[in-house]
Amino acid sequence: MRPTTVLGACVAVAALGGIARGVWNATTRDAADGASPSGEGADAAAPRDGRASLAVPSGSPPSITCDTARRIVAQARAQLASAPPEVDPRALADATADWLDPHGLWSAAPDAPVVEVLRRRASDARRELEAPPGSGPCTFADEAGASVEAWVSTLRSTFDAARAEVRAPSPVAAWEAAAGTAFEEGDVTVAARSLAALLGRRAADAVAGLGPELAPFAEAARARVVPDLDRAGWTDAVIAASVRAYLPLVDPHGAWAPRGEESSLDDPALDDAAAFHLWGRMVRAPLGLRVGEQPLAPIVAGDLVLEIDGVATAGLPVEQAEQLGAPPDGDGSALRRVLVWREGEAHPRMLDVAPPPDEPAAPHGEQVSTARVPYGDGSALVVSITDVPDDLGELLGAVLSEARATEPPAGVVLDLRGNGGGSTDGAAAAIGLFLPGAPLFPMHRRDGRVETDRAPEPEAASRWSGPLAVLVDAETASAAEMIAGGLASYHRAVLAGGRTYGKGCAQEYLDDDAQAGVLRLTTLLFALPDGAPVQRVGLVPTLHLGLAAGDEREATLAHAPPTWRGPDVRDPARVAEVPWLPHRGRVGPCDDDVPCRALRALGSPRAPVARGAR
Q1: Which of 45, 154, 311, 519 is most buried (CB neighbours < 10 A)?
Q2: Which residues of 397-407 are buried (b: 16+ CB within 10 A; e: fewer)?
């Protein structure tokens, strides 16, 4: 698969290091989405043509062998943008217990004994994962696998004993047993034995109260929440969980996902799947998936989804449930067959779910909106940009062309506050509207190679040569920092607001060498065109507007890549200011006062800068 370069905000990406239990929100994406190939690292893997198809989830715990894990770990360590840090064994053990357990039963529950084995063998786990392939077995996983096998066997007996109890629930109680909430979100506080008994009772009550049509789904739940795996099977499951735990510990923006769960990495090649996702929000229930917000018709909110395209949903981990709800063909063109049980009905119904009709696009895309602000004898154009999509240059060019055709603005303000980034191509294309053809960002790889990209040269009608400013804040990150910093580096725009997040690194998506899953790795560091670093530093505006500093920054992330200062790649002939004309006190009003504050400062007389003798 051709690597895809991504420069999204790290706050959200870093949160992928653990399991989100019980709920998945298809409409809430990490800020690293929306990116596209930018040309870097095309030799890292075979190309992926077109939109990706998703592997069909199996419902089984992800499993890989010891040597497969070592190949993945070695690949990641070799391709990181900087030397990998030493992994904390205790953190590796705790994260492995978290990733192993999608339900709160096997290893993350307070009464589960497996985590103590993982902690005791944590140093061995680190050493054995980092060893070359063929170095012998992963003994830490073998011991942990034996512990999980014995523990889950106990839980299976608890589940079966509770299921065997004879009860006669009412239809209302039976519906709650099948479709009610059972799994915890976040930290696990319920004892595994208690949860196993609860799930066993609910499986029995659902079948007894609603009918034998639910029996196959009760069996699927049992097979997945208390699976009957042997020691070798659990050993390989522990190994897979340890790799998922290891990657974020050497790369706070990195991750590995096995086949069947690869969409959990938010690979931009899979983003189109969101348009044909079967729901916007769901909750895992004992016998299926309870649909919440934004169901795709004819599914309705509250439906219990029992089966999708022949695959039962009961007992699926969140990541597999997400993937099953996305279109398997990658482009969302296939009809989905969805079996649901609707509250108050006596039997399930099979629904044919077609792709949604195309909706009219927003005039300039969802990521771009505009406002006119009175300024002097005319107005300034404020363009709010919430994301950096691939086609940002096209969207922004259309805005500028339209603005000039109606009432040429006195100046343009790009509002990038809260913009977490996105596509390198989109950032370069946006800069090209103001600095066509200019050399831009030096990109540094760990082997010492430095690659420099160049802004495209859009048609003249889309360009803007007048006064320009960019608003930024603590949440302006990555590709958005590229736009702001690139323009400021050439003195083409005045930077206003507050210090930015400071993410000067890029991630790439690629198949792992073992063909067992997909990696997201930080492989590049970038600097501004004048060589100034961004990573861990951020951008400091010329006009400080007293904006909040933000609680988290790239520099606060454990093991974030180091700061890198690059060469000055600017074209000296392009370094020039375009001054703002005085507004003579006539600015605004603004719905949001920050753009007005910036405009007042931009058009006010400035003290002359002393030059010469010091």
Answers
A1: 519
A2: bbbbbebbeee
**Could you read off the pLDDT of 288-314 as tens digits, one per residue?**
999 999 999 999 999 999 999 999 999
Q: Provide the angle, in degrees to the nearest 10, between the axes of the packed helices 424-432 and 392-406.
A: 30
Classify 434 as helix, strand or coil.
Answer: coil
What does DSSP assign to residue 111? T
Tell me if 19 sits within 8 A of 184, measured CB to CB: no
Q: Minimal CA–CA distance to 411: which of 403, 422, 419, 421?
A: 403
Residue 402: CA count within 13 A, CB half-sphere: 14
Convert the pLDDT of each residue in 29-72 to its tens digit: 222 323 322 222 222 233 333 446 789 999 999 999 999 999 99
Instruction: Calculate Rg over the CA atoms of the chain.
Output: 27
| Residue with token string 């073998």 | 142
Contact in structure between 286 and 314 (CB atoms under 8 Å):
yes
Which tokens go with 102? 């999608």
DSSP structure string for 205-240: HHHHHH-GGGHHHHHHHHHHHS----HHHHHHHHHH
Q: How many angstroms separate the CA atoms of 511 and 79, rounded?
A: 13
Q: What is the rounded average pLDDT for all residues in the chain? A: 88
For the domain spanning 368-602, the CATH number is: 3.90.226.10
The packing angle between helices 122-130 and 89-100, to 10°, is 90
**DSSP category for residue 585:** T
Question: May I ask the CATH class of domain 267-360?
Answer: mainly beta
CB of 519 closer than 8 Å to CB of 512: yes
> What are the Cα distances from residue 386, in Å, to 37, 389, 477?
20, 9, 11
**Taking the domains of the chain in order of start, what are their residue ranges?**
85-250, 267-360, 368-602
- Is residue 145 a contact partner of residue 238, using CB atoms and an 8 Å limit? yes
Q: How many Cα atoms within 13 Å fall on the side-chain side of residue 190?
A: 16
Q: For the chain, how far is it from start to end, CA to CA, in angstroms?
A: 56
The residues, any chain, with a CB within 8 Å of residue 350's CB and separated by 6 or more, are 337, 338, 339
Asked if 381 contacts 412 with a C-beta cutoff of 8 angstroms, the reply is yes
